[in-house]
Design brief:
By secondary structure, the chain is an alpha+beta fold. The protein is 21% helix and 36% strand. The chain is globular.
């Protein structure tokens, strides 16, 4: 969808998915997503991220699902999520079973989906005060 997104008092034409929410103030929300770029609140991001309502961590070493490591699992678990949304890019892919086991052993759900779907789902769950962490590969 072609639309205008206001960022830092500039208007840019971007071919991207735009998201809007009337959610609670002060939390991280995804405003737009296009392949290779996210806008979280008013910040443009060009790398993969771990995102929760109150934290944003860049993961520049995460380029694809095969790059997921125990270090990433530790980072994600530090946000104390009840559910993890794994946005795997333009195509839905599934992480290695051993990687997912890090979370299942702690009764934390992991849902793999496209990054666009993960962005939409994250905004809904974060707006509902759920303890959600999205790991988004852009």
């Amino acid at each position: 969808m072609l639309g205008k997104v206001r960022t830092n008092a500039k208007v840019r034409n971007l071919n991207r998915m735009r998201m809007h929410s009337d959610a609670r103030p002060g939390i991280n929300l995804i405003r737009a997503y296009a392949n290779g770029e996210l806008i979280v609140n008013e910040t443009n991001i060009h790398s993969s991220v771990s995102l929760s309502a109150d934290s944003l961590l860049l993961l520049p070493d995460l380029k694809c699902v095969a790059d997921l490591s125990d270090r990433h699992a530790t980072i994600i678990l530090d946000s104390d999520p009840e559910v993890i949304l794994l946005g795997t890019g333009a195509r839905q892919e599934f992480p290695a079973a051993a990687w997912s086991a890090n979370f299942l052993q702690r009764s934390v759900g992991v849902e793999a989906m496209t990054t666009a779907a993960a962005c939409r789902t994250y905004n809904v769950l974060a707006s509902e005060h759920r303890r959600v962490t999205a790991v988004l590969i852009v």
